[in-house]
Design brief:
- With 300 residues, the chain is an alpha/beta fold.
- 45% of the residues lie in helices and 20% in strands.
- It is built from ten helices and twelve strands.
- A hairpin with a 4-residue loop joins strand 1 and strand 2.
- The longest helix is centred in the first third of the chain and has 30 residues.
- The C terminus is likely disordered.
Amino acid sequence: MNTTQLECFLAVANYLNFSRAAQQLRITQPAVSHQINTLEDELGSKLFHRTSKSVQLTQAGHLFLQYASEILKLTGLSKARLKESRESLPQRFGIGCRNFLELRFMHGILERMRLEMPQIAPILRMIPFASLENLLEEEDIQVMFSLQEATPPKAVYRELVRCPIVCVCAPGHPLANASQLSLQQLAAGGRITVCPPPVYPPPLLAAQNQAIAGRGPNQMLFCDNLEIVFALVRAGYAFAVMADLPGGRLSGLRYIPLSEFKPLSYGAAYLSSKKSPVLRKFLAIAQSTVSGNEGTTCAP
């Protein structure tokens, strides 16, 4: 049973004329007859006595009349309530990132988003990179942050900032007093933390591989994630090589530029076919926020 059948039944019951019911519903008379026939088949009862000259409700038709009207009222009420619910709920906007440093990078963006887009509820997803690509394609998230070289093949990339590759170490580390470092100096700087892909995306992994070239196993500490990296770095066990994201620095650590590496392009990736007004506004906020922070958060 569907609402079209009920609307046709009520119109015929009101006019007791299929032609006038069709005019009122703005459909053809055969369409009205078809809806009534399928409704009668479903109910297993004739609702109208039909002759060439008249149409009359049967006893079953009179009985069904009161229910049909109530069913349509409830249907209309439920649609209205659901529409009100959708309009009152905040619109969700999925944002993907790979680690806690990217969450720190997003802090200022999210704060601006809350003030300028109060109707939007951000849904943050922090999971491995390959899974983020799937979520983007499935529209579970609308945007993700990424280094340019690691942008998903189907996504559009928009640069937000260029991040230097730096050595991160504790204040008491032998490298801590340098204003700039070379690969040769890193080689003499003690242990280095080592992260596998996808913890380190390809361009950062390439820099790490250059920094560990020629080192023995005793000079490397292998880490499963960045939380472990920073625990070891804070404790002075080793240094790390990573991208210096705006807003991503942890207090109490030294961030020293590596002279032999070019800055990496970091930005937002999204599907061009899904560039909604909300996404456009978010990208504008992200660009403005990051541009305002450049020159301070990435300074050595």
